[in-house]
Automatic annotation (TrEMBL):
The keyword Secreted does not apply. Its cofactor is Zn(2+); a divalent metal cation; Co(2+); Mn(2+). This is Ribulose-phosphate 3-epimerase. Signal peptide: none annotated. The gene is rpe. It comes from Skermanella cutis.
Length: 224
C-alpha cells in the first residue's frame, strides 16, 4: 500500500529449500526478492551468484533485486541480467567508472541502483541521478545479515529523500529509496517517515516463520 515495497533478503532464508522460501515469502505478501551477492573481497563474506539467481527465477514473477557487494562489478552485470535479475545495485567505491557501470546495467535491460554504505557520502549521487532507478541506503555495514540498525542512517535517508524529490520535480522521474540492514517491525515506521519506500528485511522475516509455516504474520506486521 501507499507505494511501499517489502523486499525480503534471502540471505537469511533456508538455503537448502530456497525455491520454496522464495515462493512462501512472496505468497505471504512480499513484493521483491532481495538477492545479496558477496565476494569475500569487497566484503568479508561469500554468498551466491548468477547460478542461484537463474535457479530461483522460475519460482516467482516478483522482481529480483540483485545487491552486488563485489569488486570489480562490471563482469557480473551481464551474467545477472541473463540470469533474470530485474534490478542491479552496486557500491560506487567498487566500480572504477560509476557512470559506465550504470549505463551497462541499463543497456542490459535492468533497473540500476547505487548502494551507499553508512560512511559513503551523498556526493556519489551527483551527476548520475538521471541514470538511477533506485538508491539503496545501507543502515548496516555490508557483509552480514542480522546486524543492528545504525540510527544515523535515518538522517541520511531524509537527505536522500530530498534529493529524489528535487529530481522528480525537475524530471518527472521517480527513484526508489531502498533501505537495507537491521529493519524490523519496531523501526520500519521510522524508516518510512524518514523517506524510505522500499524496505529490505532478512533476519526479521526469515527468523519469524509462523506456526502455520507461513510468513503472513510478519509481512503484515511490517506493512502495518
Ligand atoms: C547486508 C545485506 C542485507 C542484509 C539484510 O550486507 O546487504 O541485505 O542481509 O539482513 P538483515 O535484515 O538481517 O539486516
Ligand atoms: Zn542487501
Amino acid at each position: 500500500s501507499g507505494g511501499f515495497r517489502i523486499a525480503p533478503s534471502i540471505l537469511s532464508a533456508d538455503f537448502a529449500r530456497l525455491g520454496e522460501e522464495v515462493e512462501n515469502v512472496i505468497a505471504a505478501g512480499a513484493d521483491i526478492v532481495h538477492f545479496d551477492v558477496m565476494d569475500n573481497h569487497y566484503v568479508p563474506n561469500l554468498t551466491i551468484g548468477p547460478l542461484v539467481c537463474e535457479a530461483i527465477r522460475p519460482r516467482t514473477r516478483a522482481p529480483i533485486d540483485v545487491h552486488l557487494m563485489v569488486r570489480p562489478v562490471d563482469a557480473l552485470v551481464p551474467m545477472f541480467a541473463k540470469a533474470g535479475a530485474d534490478i542491479i545495485s552496486f557500491h560506487p567505491e567498487a566500480s572504477e567508472h560509476v557512470d559506465r557501470t550504470l549505463a551497462l546495467i541499463r543497456d542490459h535491460g535492468c533497473k540500476a541502483g547505487l548502494a551507499l554504505n553508512p560512511a559513503t557520502p551523498l556526493q556519489h549521487l551527483d551527476h548520475v541521478m538521471g541514470r538511477l532507478d533506485l538508491i539503496l541506503v545501507m543502515s548496516v555495514n555490508p557483509g552480514f545479515g542480522g546486524q543492528g540498525f545504525i540510527p544515523e542512517a535515518l538522517a541520511k535517508i531524509a537527505q536522500v529523500r530530498r534529493r529524489i524529490d528535487c529530481h522528480a520535480a525537475e524530471s518527472g522521474r521517480d527513484i526508489w529509496l531502498e533501505v537495507d540492514g537491521g529493519i524490523k517491525a519496531g523501526n520500519i515506521r521510522a524508516v518510512a517517515e524518514a523517506g524510505g519506500d522500499t524496505f529490505v528485511a532478512g533476519s526479521a522475516i526469515f527468523g519469524a516463520r509462523g506456526a502455520d509455516g507461513s510468513y503472513r504474520e510478519i509481512l503484515a506486521d511490517l506493512r502495518n
